[in-house]
Design brief:
The structure is a homodimer of 248-residue chains.
Chain A lengths: L4 E5 L12 H8 L7 E5 H7 L3 E3 L7 H10 L3 H9 L1 E8 L1 E6 L4 E3 L13 E3 L5 H16 L4 E10 L2 E12 L5 E2 L15 E2 L1 H10 L10 E5 L27
Parallel strand pairs in A: 2-8
Antiparallel strand pairs in A: 1-12, 2-12, 3-7, 4-5, 5-6, 8-9, 10-11
Helix pairs in contact in A: 1-5, 3-4
Chain lengths: 248, 248
């Protein structure tokens, strides 16, 4: 890739509710072309998939109540976090977990920022790669365009201030660009360079997304060489096994 | 921001050597316009600033030799890492440090991927924000365009596979976009959302940079509203104080 790249926000999407055909709405709102990568914010995927929960309807168990007390959190929220997790990574001040789908993030990625007492929260899609594959297939069927889909969410990062958008699901693109063994400009072989392309696409898409204006879908145009026929390994390939994590 | 955004690689830069006037070379090779953000790969900044070192000329001290033995690394490289660091974060399998300029990364960001025994390595700029400010001032003087500069480097991340480009220095743009307290689409106030814009710009720029083709400079066009008159706080604002790091 050495050509220019365009990031185009897609206006005109309605507020998404459970059961909405998100792929059809995207196909209608976006003018998609072959080779486009469609970056979709997790929030609308979760809403379409009915991943809302009411904290008032959640019964917190013993473990959730204990953890919640130590963290000064809502026991109902902690109960949901535990239900969405396979492992607690850290439980000091914040609750960092590995989700059932293998993502390491605060509060299992549950968006409770607007939930009052007993209020509504939004869970991550149960299987974001599967969501990406379904969206891709349906958007391709509706538009005839050969595209890739990346589902994105904002994660905090160790060591750095602020959140950055990352890929939690993808289809039609390899999330990693493996430069290991390829020669660089000077003909020398590059060592240990795997680039997390899907995360960089997610981050790029966030630059044109105005949270206040509600622009959950961004077209990334100019990466056509990276759009593949198969769905590829999915964003699960970005999840580092604990034993292989040199930073952990 | 809700308009489209363009990422334009800048071809035609020569191989950079110590003492080269990088700003003049960029001003000549790029057609810059008001509001452009110029993303510059750390590698060319370090080269222009003479941050090359020969491992053969480095005398490893006692501590470096001990650490190197435990990590199976070149003692000369470890000596350079220690000299560039204010603190060791981790020394198991890899050496994660906080650099003298406050970045947390492997091997103090020293690029030794192409260094044979005794060979040449490249250090990070001594003060990447100062480098960004100097580049900005000189590019603005040469072109008359009102721009921002972001200096980027590829960092590995805890919990996720692959490297992603981040901002190690910046001038003319606030590296953080603070959404805390602003209302969202539904009129509800957003909680705890600070977006690391400079890191997202760095990641985006990497998508059009072909490492083999040698394209260290990328123009990010469409973020003019974010380009400010002053230099701003610099990428140092992205470096989380250890005590405030909920992930650590």
């Amino acid at each position: 890739m050495s050509g220019a790249l365009e990031l185009i926000p897609v206006p005109g999407l309605p507020e998404i509710a459970e059961g909405d055909d998100l792929a059809a709405l995207i196909a209608e709102a976006a003018r998609l072309a072959d080779g486009d990568v469609v970056a979709v914010a997790q929030k609308v995927v979760s809403k379409a998939e009915g991943r809302r929960r009411l904290l008032a309807e959640v019964a917190a168990g013993e473990r959730a109540r204990e953890l919640a007390a130590g963290l000064d959190k809502d026991p109902a929220l902690v109960e949901l976090v535990l239900a969405e997790s396979r492992r607690i990574v850290r439980a000091e001040r914040v609750l960092i977990v590995e989700t059932t789908s293998g993502l390491v993030c605060a509060n299992a990625g549950i968006d409770s920022s607007n939930a009052g007492a007993g209020g509504e929260v939004l869970l991550l899609p149960a299987d974001p790669d599967a969501s990406a594959r379904r969206l891709r297939a349906a958007i391709e069927a509706a538009t005839g365009a050969h595209i890739a889909v990346v589902i994105t969410d904002s994660f905090g990062r160790p060591w750095r201030v602020g959140q950055s958008e990352v890929a939690i699901g993808c289809a039609g693109i390899d999330p990693l660009d493996d430069w290991r063994g390829r020669p660089d400009r000077d003909g020398r072989v590059l060592a240990a360079t795997e680039i997390a392309i899907a995360d960089e696409i997610a981050a790029a898409s966030d630059l044109v997304r105005d949270k206040a204006a509600g622009l959950p879908v961004v077209i990334v145009r100019g990466l056509g060489e990276r759009v593949i026929a198969e769905d590829g390994p999915g964003a699960v390939a970005l999840r580092r096994a604990e034993a292989e994590d040199l930073f952990r």
